[in-house]
Amino acid sequence: PGTADGHWFVLQPAHFHVARDHLVLTDPRQLDLDEASARTLFDAAKPLFDELGHEVRYGNARYWFLRADDWTDLRTCTPDAATGHNIDVWLPRGTQARSWRRLHNEVQMLWHMHPLNEQRESHGQNRVNALWLWGGASAQDAPAPAYADMLTGTRSGDMNRTDDTLSASALAGDWGSWLAAMKDIDTRHAAPLLAALKSGELGR
């Protein structure tokens, strides 16, 4: 079967902050999780997914991917929508939501006493104590070729790009950083693309 077969979700390592009477999702960008640490946590959790017959793939330190063909009715939301809020309102809904919660609880228990989290806490970093599940698409639903690129780590050669550097500043209400990020996007992306259009390297 091809790499885009099945129904896939995005998994993001995350931190749940304990508020007075509920849990709050912290912006996953603030984890500052390096590749080696992310791989360690991924490798520790993978057998739990394997046991249930769910394929899970490592993309990079921020994005992993879960195949769950029987979870097509699961309704999820992006971490940007849920960040800073009570997670109860934003958790996946649907007939398979309980299956996800059960699997997620097992991952949380596994990671709770993991040496990597002990080390992070000793260095003043947030523990990686959760996963955020979102998205959910099949090859027929998702825009090609970006979908296959996410799963395989390849580039198709088109000029579609996504840059989320504005999001963290916007969620934090830090408009000085937002303006700086906008200027950086203009320098790194917009200006080179405009030059490529003018030179004929890009058709549109």
State the gist of this model.
With 204 residues, the chain is of the alpha+beta class. Helices cover 42% and strands 15% of the residues. The chain is built from 7 helices and 6 strands, in the order βββαββαααβααα.
Structural class given helices, strands, pairing? alpha+beta
Find the count of extended strands (DSSP E, 2+ residues).
6
- Per DSSP, the total helix count is 7
Q: Report mean pLDDT, rounded to a whole number.
A: 85
Write up what this structure looks like.
- The chain is of the alpha+beta class and 204 residues long.
- It is 42% helix and 15% strand.
- The chain has 7 helices and 6 strands, in the order βββαββαααβααα.
- The strands form 2 sheets. The chain has a 4-stranded antiparallel beta sheet, with helices on one face. The chain has a two-stranded antiparallel sheet with strand order 2-3.
- Helix 1 packs across helix 3 and helix 6 runs antiparallel to helix 7.
- The longest helix has 25 residues.
- The radius of gyration is 19 Å and the shape is globular.
- About 7% of the residues have low confidence.
Summary keywords:
7 helices, 204 residues, alpha+beta, four-stranded antiparallel β-sheet, 42% helix, globular
SSE blueprint:
Elements: E1 7-14, E2 16-18, E3 23-25, H1 35-51, E4 56-58, E5 64-67, H2 79-82, H3 97-112, H4 115-122, E6 130-138, H5 146-152, H6 165-172, H7 175-199
Antiparallel strand pairs: 1-5, 1-6, 2-3, 4-5
Helix pairs in contact: 1-3, 6-7
